[in-house]
User: Which sequence fits this backbone?
């Protein structure tokens, strides 16, 4: 298995633009998590899904952020409109019943 | 929700010495405690984990201990090597399936 796959690896955009981050979890994993990592706030959980259903989105900072999981092998995190303070590394991670969480390579987002 | 505190925030050790990182958690229902290593520009990678029914676990040069009563757990790295230099995160899984992370410890191994 190739592990959790995220795209793009790097995204540079201008304030006000829409940003879409993509994730393919490990096959067979039924939990998918989106994290944001910054120096100031560390690793923050934004939202997680179980069997494609959003379970807890209490970490989503604002209505500008939305996430979907249309099927078991794909999820997106969208920011519209983006702001400079959204600049961070966004990680997707997945796990199955045995609780071991595996991270993707992350998307480095820079909003100018 | 769960709150995980991690100390120290930075740790510098001489190659060959031991490194210890300590974490405390707040939710007594938490039952799974993984440790992640993150090298610069890379993803966090699971290096060892422990469940609440176990007090200690060892894997080569790394070991983790858990004290459920005191709600704290620790990572021990023995015979440190330059490749151990990284940021280490502890985490705790509460019964809402959310993994809460500590703030991280930057470990530097001096040659």
Assistant:
């Amino acid at each position: 298995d190739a592990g959790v796959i995220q795209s793009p690896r790097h995204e540079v955009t201008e304030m006000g633009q829409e940003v879409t981050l993509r994730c393919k979890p490990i096959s067979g994993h039924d939990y998918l998590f989106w994290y944001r990592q910054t120096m100031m706030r560390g690793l923050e959980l934004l939202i997680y899904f179980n069997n494609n259903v959003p379970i807890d989105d209490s970490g989503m900072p604002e209505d500008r952020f939305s996430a979907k999981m249309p099927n078991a092998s794909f999820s997106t995190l969208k920011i519209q409109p983006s702001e400079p303070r959204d600049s961070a590394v966004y990680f997707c991670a997945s796990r199955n019943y045995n609780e071991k969480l595996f991270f993707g390579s992350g998307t480095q987002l820079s909003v100018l | 929700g769960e709150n995980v505190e991690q100390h120290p925030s930075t740790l510098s050790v001489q190659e060959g010495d031991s490194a210890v990182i300590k974490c405390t958690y707040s939710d007594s229902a938490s039952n799974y405690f993984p440790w992640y290593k993150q090298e610069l520009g890379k993803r966090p990678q699971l290096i060892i984990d422990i469940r609440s029914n176990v007090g200690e676990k060892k894997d080569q040069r790394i070991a983790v201990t858990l004290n459920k009563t005191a709600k704290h757990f620790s990572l021990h790295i023995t015979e440190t090597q330059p490749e151990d230099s990284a940021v280490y995160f502890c985490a705790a899984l509460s019964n809402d399936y959310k993994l809460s992370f500590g703030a991280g410890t930057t470990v530097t191994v001096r040659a």
